Structures are given as C-alpha cells and as structure tokens.
Amino acid sequence: MRGWELTLERFAASRAGGWYFINVANKIDKHLVPATRGKLSTAVGQQVLVVETIGAKSGQARRIPLVYVSEGDAIVLIASKGGAPKHPAWYHNLKAHPEVQVWAKGRSGRYRAREAEGEERERLWAKAVDYYAGYDTYQARTGGRRIPVMVLEPVSG
Predict the structure, then answer these.
(1) How confident is the model at residue 15 (pLDDT cuts 50, 70, 90)?
(2) Nearest CA to 11 among 25, 21, 2, 1?
(3) Residues 90/101, Cβ–Cβ less than 8 Å
(4) Number of domains comprising the chain
(5) Who wins on pLDDT, 38 or 52?
(6) How far is it, in rounded angstroms, from Cα 115 to Cα 68?
(7) Measuring CA to CA, how many Å separate 65 from each of 46, 78, 98, 120?
(8) Contacts of 62 (CB under 8 A, 6+ apart)
(9) Residues of the chain by 3-state class (helix, strand, coil), percent to 5
(10) pLDDT tier at 14, thresholds 50, 70, 90
(11) Which percentage of the chain shows pLDDT scores above 70?
C-alpha cells in the first residue's frame, strides 16, 4: 500500500473520517456512482458501489454508497456503520427486502442479499479486513455488537 493510501485509510478509520464518509461523501457518491456506473467515487483508493434497498419500515427506495469486496460473482458488504453500537439502516432493509439494485464498476444489476454465517462469515470478514483494516477498528468500537457480513449474489434473468 502506498503512503497516501495508508494515510487515507487511517483517516477513514478515525471517528472524524467515519463521520465524513457517512455524512458528506455518501451524499455525493449516491448520485456520482450510479451516474458513472461505478467509475467515479469520492473514496479515493477504495472500490465503492451504490446499493438501492427498499426501506424496512418506510417501503421507500434508499440508495447508500458502500465499500465492497468481491467474492467471485458475489459482492460482500460489511454492516459496520463506522463502529456505531447499532446496525445501519441498510442492513435492516436488506434483511426485510433482499432483492436490490447495485451500481458498481463492471457489476451493475440486480442482486439478492443474504447474511453470511459461521465459517463463511469468518472467511469473508478476514478478506474484508485485509482489503480495509478499518473494519477491525470499527468492530472494537461497537460496544459488543457483532458486525454483520452481507453477501449479494447476482439475480439471473
């Protein structure tokens, strides 16, 4: 990892960085990523997608930019919310309405979400932490909440 990438990763893992990406960058990326089919994002050095979920309570479409890792044709999302004590709203949306639309470089389309458990969860968590070490920092901040690992698999047809 280059020096500037390490600096950005450290910033993103900080409380201020987490706040910035959740409250500022996400507002930009939820429009920028779909408009460019995943080619542009405010998260320099990270692969970012936008997932459109249906609100678990509201029934309204919601778009959220997220860092992701790939697992074959599947997409892996980490429901960290910067280490907050509660799961992010998008996690509850995926659990209630697992069919989603994704915009990502070379991966845009319909997906079905499920939560990884057991050995699969541990393996995917390790892969995600290898991609972005800040997830371990976030896990330590949660106050005991176990951060969910979500797998999005392409819907054929």
Answers:
(1) confident
(2) 21
(3) no
(4) 1
(5) 52
(6) 14
(7) 12, 12, 17, 24
(8) 52, 53, 54, 55, 89, 90, 93
(9) 40, 25, 35
(10) confident
(11) 94
* Helices and strands (DSSP H and E) totals, the chain: 6, 7
Contact 58, 45 (CB under 8 A): no
Other Cβ atoms closer than 10 A to 92: 16
Q: What is the mean pLDDT of the chain?
A: 90
Amino acid at the residue 23: N
Residue 87 makes CB contacts below 8 A (sequence gap 6+) with 79, 81, 145, 148
Report the C-alpha gap between 33 and 26 in whole angstroms. Answer: 10
The CA–CA distances, whole Å, from 93 to 5, 52, 118, 133 equal 32, 10, 22, 26
The CATH number linked to 16 is 2.30.110.10
Domain that holds residue 76: 3-154
CB 82 within 8 A of CB 49: no
**Which of 92, 44, 94 is CA-nearest to residue 67?**
44
* Residue 10 pLDDT greater than 80, yes or no: no
28, two tokens: 């930009």
